[in-house]
Design a protein that fits this description.
Largest sheet: 5 strands, antiparallel
Strand order of the largest sheet: 3-2-1-5-6
Helix content: 25-40%
Shape: elongated
Number of strands: 10
Distance between the termini: 70 Å
Structural class: alpha+beta
């Protein structure tokens, strides 16, 4: 009697297993098709927010140290820096306070093909800079940095008063608040 019961007990069959694997594959494909565009958008946003964070850090350091500090971006080496000018007019003795390399998936580009970084250039280099005074305002010229990642453009604009605005390109115009 016992051997007959075991003979009729059913386990997982090969067709059951194949159906379960097919459904899991379909769910994975659906999740991937949703996640990939989202990740591309987040790549550009992340690059834009990195630029914004370093601009804000340079401004805060200038106020805290009561002397000029510089934000430097080098599109060729993909680096962002915050430098303390140490109160001198020379850039050769600046102290690096913060430094990072922008992700490889982010590039500096604009949708219209014009210059992606419009901050003043650092003499003799491919770098651009913004100098913040101890009052938080920008010394010299303001400008913008535009990053591209995935399928998105994000522009970080720096104003002379020290204000920063982040905008995204929607395919037709720059929008804020996204």
């Amino acid at each position: 009697m016992r051997s007959e019961c075991r003979r009729h007990e059913a386990g997982t069959t090969l067709p059951d297993l194949l159906i379960a694997l097919g459904l899991a594959g379909l769910l994975l494909l659906t999740a991937t098709s949703i996640a990939v565009p989202w990740l591309a958008r987040e790549t550009a946003r992340s690059g834009g927010y990195d630029v914004q964070a370093y601009l804000q850090a340079a401004r805060a350091e200038a106020a805290a140290r009561n002397r000029d500090c510089r934000f430097v971006i080098d599109p060729d080496s993909r680096t962002l820096q915050v430098l303390d000018t140490l109160g001198t007019g020379s850039t050769s003795d600046d102290a690096v306070l913060r430094e990072m390399r922008v992700a490889r998936t982010v590039s500096f580009a604009r949708p219209d093909g014009t210059t992606a970084v419009t901050l003043p250039t650092v003499s003799g280099t491919s770098a651009h800079q913004a100098v913040f005074g101890s009052d938080g305002t920008v010394r010299g010229s303001a400008g913008a940095v535009t990053v591209f990642g995935g399928d998105r453009f994000v522009e970080v604009t720096l104003y002379l008063g020290g204000g920063i605005e982040v905008r995204e390109w929607d395919g037709h115009a720059w929008t804020t608040g996204n």
